[in-house]
Structure prediction request, 96 residues.
Amino acid sequence: MTVGELYLESLSTGVITPAELSWLTHGQDRFSRLEEATALRLGRLLDQGDIQLGCRLVPTGEPSRSPASPAPASAPAPAPGVLEEWIEPLGRRRHR
Prediction:
């Protein structure tokens, strides 16, 4: 999982799990400038109450995911539209 993916997941669900927050804080010394800005934005959203610290409920029919590993190893790749419209604007190809 990347900081951008965590940001989008937290923003779309309104929840960040303790395991994800722990991963974020333990990896912050290796973040790029963009990832640092995204992590700061996540912190601000937490402070404002737009994102809550908690757990995500898994919809019926989906296999359970453990909190220690936010994304399963066999997770399908994101659809091309998601990659271009959501993840890329977070900075990878921003200055064309």
About this structure: Confidence is low (pLDDT under 50) at residues 81-89. Residues 33-48 form the longest helix (16 residues).
